[in-house]
Specification:
Elements (H helix, E strand, L loop, with lengths): L15 H4 L2 H6 L10 H7 L5 E2 L2 H20 L12 E2 L4 E2 L3 E8 L5 E5 L4 E3 L5 E3 L6 E6 L4 E4 L2 E4 L2 E9 L13 H8 L1 H10 L7 E2 L2 H18 L13 E2 L5 H19 L3 H16 L4 E2 H11 L4 H10 L16 H4 L3 E8 L2 E9 L4 H10 L1 H7 L4 E7 L3 E6 L1
Parallel strand pairs: 1-2, 3-12, 13-14, 15-18
Antiparallel strand pairs: 4-5, 4-8, 4-11, 6-7, 9-10, 10-11, 15-16, 17-18
């Protein structure tokens, strides 16, 4: 061109176009003759689960589906859809901010507090008194200045004054950004990891709370003390951890925990899985003899959530190899069944007592147990039972006159 030679650029679609099919190349990254080996593509696609933010779904995943369908129409892939399931994780917001409002004088000094319910926005977007339309001063409060009253927050010094509580998207301008490196330094990587999963449902947006991080750190410390003698000079198992079979109640708690954590992980309900492990820890802290086998299975459940602590405990329990490749614990449905069940007893539809009966008791056994209860005997005294309604395993209701 004009006596000058140019080299043609053939790579005309870098960046986003390449990112639209990276999941296919991951399957066969060193293949120099094809995008992906056909057998590998059939074996691994579609992607089982894709986790990404809402913006990610609108942009990247939209283009990915388009790109994938082009590849499908051209015969390069065997499946029309690239992703089997999509979950949009919620945003982690900054810590909750508490805001109060005060009336002001002409010279700008503040006077009395005013409840947030009496505040509205003026034409300039600044807060004003809803009644007088006078400007108000916005006061940033400390968490200790606020207290919860029902579903709202009020001023601790004057509970009649309602205040605003809100968590905002993290930004440098608001000064509410949390540095994860600092959290790791102060509390450890497992605490950070566990807290992010314990904050709430995966899909929900949630405010950050350092008190919450501290609480999770305390739980992990409690797990450590459940199995390790923290008073010993050297790291060693707690004397209560012994190689004995679990009792019936201990075994039921173990299998309940395995079943619940397994189900919750499959449903991506990580917060409730952690709550189940907290219940397990509280239960076994109260027993004098903690079966080693039960502790080992619990450590396996904890591993995906707090891998560093779990590996350390696994080693202290006598295992030289990592637990990462151990088989996931299995639960026994028969063990989960309670030996007894509590049944409510009603009289004319109103709850009057509860009785404990053997699980699986028939209708006659339920009625007999209800009639034998002292409180129910007193309630039925001098009355005629017109009808007895028994919902097996659920409830007994005496209709009287």
């Amino acid at each position: 061109l004009d006596g000058k030679r140019y080299k043609r650029e053939t790579n005309t679609m870098p960046q986003w176009a390449g990112s639209c099919w990276y999941f296919l190349r991951f399957l066969d990254p060193k293949n120099t003759t094809a995008l992906v080996d056909a057998e590998l593509e059939k074996a691994w696609m579609p992607v089982d689960l894709y986790v990404g933010g809402a913006e990610h779904a609108v942009l990247h995943l939209l283009y990915s589906r388009f790109w994938h369908k082009v590849l499908y129409d051209r015969g390069y892939v065997s499946m029309a859809e690239p992703f089997h399931k999509l979950v949009n994780q919620g945003m982690i917001l900054g810590e909750t901010e508490y805001t109060g409002y005060r009336t002001t004088t002409e010279d700008g000094s503040t006077e009395s507090w005013i409840s947030a319910t009496d505040v509205t926005e003026g034409a300039d977007g600044k807060p004003i008194d809803r009644k007088s339309h006078k400007p108000l001063a916005t006061i940033r409060l400390k968490p200790d200045d606020a207290t919860k009253q029902g579903e709202v927050f009020v001023l601790k010094a004057d509970p009649s004054i309602r205040i605003d509580s809100r968590a905002y998207k993290m930004s440098k301008s608001r000064g509410n950004v949390v540095n994860p490196d600092q959290v790791v330094e102060d509390y450890g990587a497992d605490s950070l990891r566990l807290y992010e999963m314990f904050m709430g449902p995966l899909e929900a947006s949630k405010p950050w709370s350092m008190d919450g991080v501290s609480g999770v750190y305390g739980f992990l410390d409690r797990v450590w003390r459940l199995m390790i003698d923290d008073r010993a000079e050297a790291t060693r198992l707690h004397a209560s951890v012994v190689d004995v079979p679990p009792t019936v109640d201990q075994n039921r708690m173990l299998h309940k925990t395995i079943a619940a954590v397994t189900r919750d992980i499959e449903n991506l309900s990580f917060n409730t899985a952690i709550a189940r492990m907290m219940e397990f820890t509280n239960f076994f802290f109260k027993v004098e003899r903690r079966p080693k086998a039960a502790m080992e299975q619990f450590v396996q459940l904890l591993s995906p959530f707090a891998p560093h602590l779990a590996e350390e405990l696994w080693q202290q329990l006598g295992h030289a190899e990592t637990l990462a490749y151990e088989t996931w614990p299995q639960f026994d449905e028969a063990v989960l069944a309670e030996a007894t069940v509590e049944i409510p007893v009603q009289i004319n539809g109103k709850l009057r007592g509860r009785v404990t009966v053997a699980t699986g008791s028939d209708r006659s056994a339920l009625e007999a147990a209800a009639r034998a209860d002292e409180k129910i005997v007193e309630q039925l005294a001098g009355k005629t039972v017109v009808k007895t309604i028994v919902v097996s395993g659920k409830m007994v209701n005496f209709v009287v006159k």
